[in-house]
Structure formats: C-alpha cells, structure tokens
User: Fold this.
Amino acid sequence: MPSIPLKQALTFALLWLSTASASAANHAATVAALGDGPHPVACSNLAHDEARMNQIGGRPAEFWEGIANTDNGGNIPRYITDILLEPAATPQFGLAVPDDRGLYRGFAGTTLPVVLLVCHPTSMANIRNDYRLPDAQSLPKMQRAGETPIFPAGAAKLPLILYSHGLGGSPVSDDYLGTLRTLASHGYIVAALFHGDARITRIRIADLNDLFYLAREFERYVELQALRPLALSQALDYLLRHPDYADRIDVGRIGGFGASMGGEAMLLAMGARLTQSYSNLSSRTVQNEPRIKAAAGYVPYGGLSFLPAFGDDQHGVDGITKPWLAVSGTADTTAPISLMQQAVNRMKGSRYLVALDGVPHEYKPEYSQDVFTWVVTFLDAHVKGDADALSRLVRMARVRDGLADSVRVDYTAPRSASASEVIVTELRHDATGHFVNAVGQGEVDFVLGFPGWRPTGFNFKAIADNGASSAACRFYYLGNGFDVMGGKDSLYITPEPALCNYGKARTREWNFLAANISLPRAENGICPAGTIAVNVVYNNQTSGAVNHRFVTSNAAVADSERGGALNQGVAMCAPL
Assistant:
C-alpha cells in the first residue's frame, strides 16, 4: 500500500493534469517549405580560360577538385588557379600551413593556393549577365574584371556563411552551386572554398569504408581533414580585408554550412578535436575560430564505427558550445547518423539532429525543401539572431509534403539573461538519478556544495518575479525521508494557481520555497511566440523515491521515459 507522501505526490500529478488542456510539446508543428528567398543572387568572378584548360588537358571538374593528370605515368598538378581567365578579379588567397608535421605531413610550412566563390544577394536593378561555366552550369550575374559587387539597396552589412563542400567536390560540383544560390537568396553573403582535396590525397567517398585503405593512408587523411578548417579561418581573414566585402560583412553574424566532410570541417573550425591516432583514437584541436557563431551540416561526416571523427567515443566535441544543426539520412552508410548523433549528444550548446528517413549519402533536388527549410530557419535563428525564426525552430517537427523527417536531438539553450531574467539550471545526482532546478548561480553553487550533483547542460530562462500573475510557486518535496540535498531531492515548479494552493496547504509533504520567478502559462496547451515549452516528467518512483524533472528538450524527455519515467506534458513556458 503506498505511503501517504506518495499518495500526495500522485495527487499533485493528477491535479496538474486536470489544470492543463492537451499539451503541445516542442517540435510538434508541420511547417510549409521555405523555398528560395526574396533576393536575386549575384556571384564573384570565376571566368575560365577554356583555351588554357584544353591546352593543359582535363575536364573542368578535375581542375575544380585538384585532380592531377596521371596520363602516361605522369603526375602533373591541376587546380582551378591554372585556368582562371581573370585571376586578379577572382577571390583567392595563399593558405599558410603551419610547420606542424604532426598534422600536416605533406604541406607543413608551405603555402597552398585556395580559390573562393562568393555569392550574395543583389539588387533588382542588377542587369549583369549570367556566366556559363564549361560544364553548362551558370553563375548568376557574375562580376567581371573591373566591376564591384552590387548589393541590395539599403543593405549596409550582411551576415556571412562560410561554405565547405563534400569530399572530392567543389562549390560548382553537382548541386552545390544551387545550395549557394539558395542561401544567398535568403540574405546571406556565402563564401565557398575550392578545397582541392585531391591535391592532398586522392581519397574518395567509397574509400572511407575501406579499413585497410584508411590505415595505409591515415596520415594523409588526417592532413586533408586538418587543412579544411584552417582554410575556413584564413578565408575569413581574407574576406574581412577584401575591399569588395570588408565593409559589407557583419562580423557579429558569421556562420557556417557544410556538406558531408564539409560538415565535419565546420565542427573542427569551431574547436572540435580531430582523431589523430588510428590505434588509440586520441584527438587534438586543429582550429578554434571564435568568429563563427553557429553552423549547420547536411549529411555531416562524424566518422565510422571503427574510426570516429572526433576521438574516442566522440569526446572531441565535448567543448562545443555554439549552436549546431545536423541534417542526416537514416540510410547513410558513409556518414552514419548514429556517429553524428553520438557527437551531437555530447555538445553543450543549442544542438539539433534532424533525421531524413531513407535518405542515403547524397543530395537530390527533391530533398531541397526539407534540407533548406531546416537549415535556413536554423541560420536565421542562430546567426542572424532572428527571434521569430527561433520561435519557429523550436516548434518545427517536419516539412509539409516533403520527406519523412524527425527530430532526434533537440536542445535550445537560453539566450543570455537580461537584467529582468534569470537562468534556471538543471542538475542531476550521480547516484540517485534525481533532478533539481536551481534558480540563479547562487542556488547552483549551493547544490554543487553537496556531493554527487552535476549540471546536465539542460537549462531554461525565467523572468525574475515582478508580482505578475504568472509567478511560479516552487516546492521542495519532503516525502523522500527529509534527505535534504542527499540525492533523493525533488523540486516542483508551477505557475498554476490551483497547484500552488494545493502545495501550500500540505506543509507536511511540500515545503513552499518561494515565488521568486515568473513563467508564462501555456494557453490551451500552446506556448506563446518568444517562449519554449517546459515539460514536466515524473520519475514514477524508479529510484524508490519521488522526483520531478522540468526540461525543454523532447530528446531528454524521451530519455527519461526510456528509464521508466512518465511525461506529464507542458508545465509552463520559458522565455527564449
């Protein structure tokens, strides 16, 4: 027969359910596809000298990708710099490679040319011609020698996206050029690097699953991966000095987007550690670019089961605190979603993993509405700082009429607290698995003064109480044996007047702490714009004692449910 305290705890839970209508958790909305943005697009100079290309010999893609000419047993280097018609007008720089032979076996201490393609929103009045590339693709309104970029009227500074293509590709390979156009149409300057991977090693996508090939070419493989984030950082330096772009780039709104190995490059650029040892999976930092505010990846490469990209068990991303979005395919065997999910779960900042059901390691035009609705919404939210986009992002679950997409990992970290706001920090006890929510740093320090408690990284914001009707009552549950801060603690938070009154009337079970924070109530189960839903989870006494968890992440709720807890729905709404 249950104890009286347990009966009271269950009554509290039932009363909560009776005060709320059908709850709408985060990431529950089906949204319309974004499509292209409102801006026409123009691109920087990439004029080709086709006569020179024919003289040297080779297809355009072989120059774009840096594939050497090995005909007749030779090894003649090729890169796009060999076939530029107007090289002085084409963005390019010399990549200065550090004299670090631990990372850069073949190119340590050298300089490697890197070409950029920069696409950007332009004015409706821009009447420049499109430029036809040798493979019949077209660069929109391409800038020619002696010309300067034409930006939209009234646009002083624009956000920048650094773009990194997949292994062995280039910004104008396959569908990458369409990606640049789409991002630029939504108001971004997009700078895409011709990495020229084949100059480093001729590794191909198919080789990534070849254990023996990777073992044999491992040092070159590490060098290739390490050069990419280095190039991204130096490309940013170059653009911020360039007379065409320096005054147009908003240095406070710089983000990144990468496909496949380009996604890995973005994480490495933001400080993730790269696996550098095949034998013990040790890892080291190769770059840490503080100017990149957030980044996204499509089918981003996180390594393979026998060779994770970010060290043993992906611990190399433990220090990633900047927002990251991964859009991965469930049928991808080259960049398995399981490896990226393991990495994303280790990150500390806002993080999202969207799974596209049945999608392999490829991109098709029919994927575009799903991919770019997620990517553009994320970049608008976390790079542009668009509050409306952030509200949409926390509600998005799938794109209408598109692929079967699902959110596997979701956590939106609270933005910096204003003078009228406070951070509510979740902590967990190692031994009991109980959760508590501490309001403000003083309470966090108090809880951490007792053994076994650690922050989980799942936090939300509240409004410092100003006497509003949304003032939240906070209670400490006394029915777990009065084990104050001994690991079996449980706190309850509610803005519901009926629950506040219930708890205050039962002082033997519920110790009323304070109503020193305000949290908006969900109206008809829906949280208002500018807020995120906070779910309450009851542990169902799986630890032998009562505990309640308050968290904004659906993935965290699902994790608790797998442990036997019960999701009781949306308890309240927290400011974003």
